[in-house]
UniProtKB/TrEMBL annotation:
Binding site for Mg(2+): 231
Active site location: 193 (schiff-base intermediate with substrate), 246 (schiff-base intermediate with substrate)
SUPFAM superfamilies: Aldolase
EC numbers for this chain: 4.2.1.24
Top-level taxon of origin: Bacteria
InterPro entries reported in the protein's UniProt record: ALAD, Aldolase_TIM
Residues noted as binding 5-aminolevulinate 2 in the record, renumbered to the chain: 272, 311
Highest classification ranks of the organism: Bacteria, Pseudomonadati, Pseudomonadota, Gammaproteobacteria, Thiohalorhabdales
Database matches in CDD domains: ALAD_PBGS (cd00384)
Enzyme class: lyase
Gene3D superfamilies assigned: Aldolase class I (3.20.20.70)
Protein name: Delta-aminolevulinic acid dehydratase
Entry-linked Pfam families: ALAD
Amino acid sequence: MRYRPRRLRRNQAIRSMVRENHLRPEDLIQPLFVKEGGSVPQAVPSMPGVFQLPLDQLVEEGRKARDAGLGGVILFGIPEGKDPEGSEAWHAEGIIQQAVRRLKEAVPDLYVIVDACFCEYTDHGHCGVLRQDGVVDNDLTLDNLRKAVVSYAEAGADMVAPSGMMDGMVDAIRSALDESGYYELPVMAYTAKYSSTYYGPFRDAAESAPSHGDRRGYQMDPANGREAVRELELDEAEGADIVMVKPGLAFMDVVLRLRQSTDLPVAVYNVSGEYSMIKAAAERGWIDERGVVLETLTGFKRAGADLILTYHALDAAAWLRGEA
């Protein structure tokens, strides 16, 4: 037996030396939910450890993310008022616009990404303007998306991340930002966002469940893989700076497909259902939470992800620093 693979596994020193993939705090992005009104954080029952934050508490969470060395945060807004178009999404004094300004004033070196979608802002919970037949009108939604992303840029956002899966959304956003002078602001596209049952807890946190129907008319079929590459080609041609796969755990093959098909940075969203399953099992003592989280996040890196959006980000950063 001339070759023994165990030679390179004998101790921590050699294992570290030949490790192929590395997980770092700066690879992680923490999602944060900010809610208009109120003065105390509201726990999300289906997501242990996750809260809807008032503006003042948001700043403290931003400082924690900065001090932990995370890559940044991504914001989701929950307004007090909703309407059929989701007009609070582009209001100059909307909850997200206030949140971005507060964070950039208090924690200027924190990288702030804004999710750009309308499901939290519409009274029907869909990701855009509805036609009379109840179908989302793609192009009218793009008009509103243009207004929203410019307002986020004006508030001081460092990046926008369109997640509604509207056709042509990256092109619309890129054009609107460039025309308004924000040509240096990057776009992280939710390139392959699947119509997934893993999103359930998020809809509790963002108060964004559809009042009727579902989102299969614009989000992707979980059975499809090749379609993700076509979406990648479109987003890349339209000017996306980063491309994303959502969810993550059941779609690592899609992360790999995108990694093999582009030189752009690839992100993956470790979504609410994936988070809550781990938390629930850990609370029952069925799994080692630290080990499972770090193994899962490393799996995303191995599949080809450069960035990971995850509700585990703060905990994972502490574990990576060797903290209990």
